[in-house]
Amino acid sequence: MSSPSPALAYRLEAARGVVQDAARLAMSMRPAPGGPEGKQKSAQDWLTEADGAVENFIAQRMKTLFPDDGFQGEEGGVARAGSLRWVVDPIDGTSNYARGRNRWCVSLGLLEGDEPVAGVIEAPALGEVYTALRGQGAFLNGKRIQASPVTDPASAMIEMGWSNRVPKPIFMEKIDAIMDLGAMPRSGGSGALALADVACGRLDGYIEIVINLWDVAAALPLLAEAGACVSPFLREGGLTGPATILAANPHIARALSSAVGISLD
């Protein structure tokens, strides 16, 4: 294991504190269980007051701590450029959050140029914090994690994210392919947490046809450090717009890739 860059290690520790405070803010604003609260941007795509408040909180804290670093948020777009760039999804799983459910998180990733190097994902309603730093492993609540050892697709659990930007026939084609492998399909409503689940072995794979950088930036270092296989999301356009992602444990990754027609190369 390589020695961590002191600058990157310091940034990860600082980010951990900022995300913790941001998660507390999000919890204080979380709607009570019931019908969704917030603005519906499109079918099943929600925006709550907390999305903007949490992003602004993180943006200001990171600007104070690291004024030369770039910053990109889901709600505000690319606000600052820099060779090191923070990418935040203030509430990943907003449809869950808007109904007072627990499966949502605050996600903050760090890119060095085009390479994901660190990430923090906190799911405060679940009591879980994921962290990763390039070359230093991936952790859940301080304990090292790794991808699932499952080798038989018929024993695998695969999640697929839904998006209204994906035509129904394409979505159903991929779901059919997953089921034809004998795998168990799931859908939980948070791309960042689904990818974290692949990293820690709770899932054997995750697929989303259209997903954005802020949804995956913090999870990509987790996946790399946990030994998961990931499709070339950034190379396939994920740095500048939505792209497709497949992440899986290394034992079923090729079979899943072949079945759903998403290349790992």
From TrEMBL:
Keyword field: Hydrolase, Magnesium, Metal-binding
Necessary cofactors: Mg(2+)
GO molecular function: inositol monophosphate 1-phosphatase activity; metal ion binding
Pfam families: Inositol_P
Signal peptide: none
SUPFAM superfamilies: Carbohydrate phosphatase
UniProt family annotation: Belongs to the inositol monophosphatase superfamily.
PANTHER family: INOSITOL MONOPHOSPHATASE, INOSITOL-1-MONOPHOSPHATASE-RELATED
Name of protein: Inositol monophosphatase
Species of provenance: Acetobacter orleanensis
Native organism taxonomy: Bacteria, Pseudomonadati, Pseudomonadota, Alphaproteobacteria, Acetobacterales
